[in-house]
Design brief:
alpha/beta; 5-stranded mixed barrel; 8 strands
Length: 169
């Protein structure tokens, strides 16, 4: 199983994972399953910094990619769609995206999940900014560490994940 972290070095520190880079469109990895982990922005207004979201599917510029959700119970995470964009979405755009049913927005998960091919994929994101705030809001200095700490606590669960249909058991 491979854990990929996108995109920041500090996220990689939190999980002890391999870093990919912001806006990545493809990634090579080994293993019979893939976990994509990192930070996200909330679309759902009930999400708070430090909350974890496990994607039921990731959406991008093509067909959605189904994701494994069994990690959610062990992580105490919300389950729902995550939308990947090629830019940072501000509060106004996130408010308009709420009608899509997506819980959160990021910049890599969709394209990384597509790179997995037929392998099982799990996507776990920690909320860094609320739906009504910009990423560059001064409050992110306080809220950002909450998200990183949530990833740090999630790391052992992510590393231990063995999907039911994975041959690597």
């Amino acid at each position: 199983m491979t854990v990929l972290l996108a995109p920041l070095r500090v996220e990689a520190w939190a999980l002890g994972a391999r870093r990919t880079g912001m806006g990545v469109r493809t990634a090579g990895f080994d293993g019979s399953a893939l976990v994509v982990a990192g930070l996200c922005g909330a679309i759902d207004p009930t999400l708070r910094p430090g909350d974890l979201v496990v994607a039921s599917e990731v959406r991008g510029d093509g067909e959605p990619v189904e994701c494994a959700t069994e990690l959610a119970a062990a992580l105490g995470a919300r389950i729902g769609p995550i939308l990947s964009l090629d830019h940072v979405a501000g509060p106004e755009e996130r408010a308009s995206l709420a009608s899509t049913g997506a819980l959160a927005v990021d910049m890599e998960s969709y394209w990384l999940a597509r790179s997995a091919g037929d392998r099982p994929v799990a996507v776990v994101r920690a909320v860094v900014d609320r739906a009504d705030r910009r990423l560059l809001d001064p409050r992110t200095l306080v809220d950002g560490p909450k998200a990183l700490l949530a990833l740090r606590h999630a790391a052992p669960v992510l590393r231990a994940w063995r999907p039911l249909d994975s041959e690597e058991q």
